[in-house]
Amino acid sequence: MNNITFLFFSIMFLIGTDTFLISPLLPALTKIYHISADVSGWMVSAYALGYATFALIAGPISDYLDRKKVMIFGMIGFAISTFLCGLAPNFWTMMLFRLLAGISAAFITPQVWASIPVLVAPKNIVKTMGYTTAGLSLSQMIGIPIGSYLAAMSWHAPFFAIACCSVILMIGLLFILPSLPTSSNTTNKRRSIIDVYLRLFKTPTITIYIIAYFIFQTGNFAAFSFIGSWLSSDFQLHIAEVGTAMIALGLGNTFGSIFGNHLVKKLGVRKSLLFAFCSLIILYTVLPFALNLMIAELLLFMIFLIGGFVFPIFISTLQALTTTARGTVSAMANAAMYGGTALGGMIGGLLLNHFRGFFGVSFFTVVMYMFSLFIYIKGGIFKTEKRYHRLQEIQKVERK
Description:
- The chain is mainly α.
- About 80% of the residues lie in helices and about 0% in strands.
- It is built from 19 helices and no strands.
């Protein structure tokens, strides 16, 4: 792993820790702010909505600016807003600061994904994306438990720690990352944001894949956002114990991200994606029936192992749809993910509050996965010839 890959890995680790930190903190923050369990999911949704909304703006802008500068300014805003989260005196100020943190993150991570195809040889793109994704995975295995342990002493501490680390990474971006001016020409620079999106949506493949990805992430985060709450209520775990239990999730995700590319090489992208969907549907169907914590942990490990392996497939498939607007496509993918996080956070809280155990949440996730798979199938991702012609169509549009 070279310096740039490690820098991207570290950025995703830090932002992943901040993104997912709220999940194990929800039981504690619910009591501190005197709110109900279904409303607590809004703290997840506030960050996600800020991210999803501004990623759609940041993407096209970054396609004709230096991506390095965009990341640096985004990291400065992220450090300040996350620090303010640690000072939030009530629920609504926490909502505001989480929203600002999400907006700041929206100017960072799409640039990471868009920069990889530029800085890395084509044969190493999926591998590098796997290493970068491992940063997100490791944030669940190490970052979230550490945050939970700090929160056991003071709920303010994890936010302050993340803010300090953000400043360090901002300095790393300044000195390690090369300048990344885009190849967009003068005509592209004159285009409005709406024109950029209209140009991309001329080809239906992009729309289909983004919708399918959004639905997948809605189900994914409806479950993930409330795993900590489920473990706390059904298995009587305290906040530090929840953090420890979630190590299994991060461990599975990390292994999947790092070593999943070997399975992709063996099976191919289409078979790997189908295998992941089928496995996740089966595992989430079984999960609510876990009789004890050990069985629940094993199932969650397997779920996040597959999740870590499939995420680079989603991203690389979307990146392959364009060569001139990778920042915009990355932003769309991230907006879809965080839009799914926002919707999943709201729906998951209601389901957890009105159904026994994890049954309601898990059933919703399974339905979303099945719906997403159906859309991918209709979009032709599992048909080589059909996909080839769609990519040809995209390239013709981009050349106009």
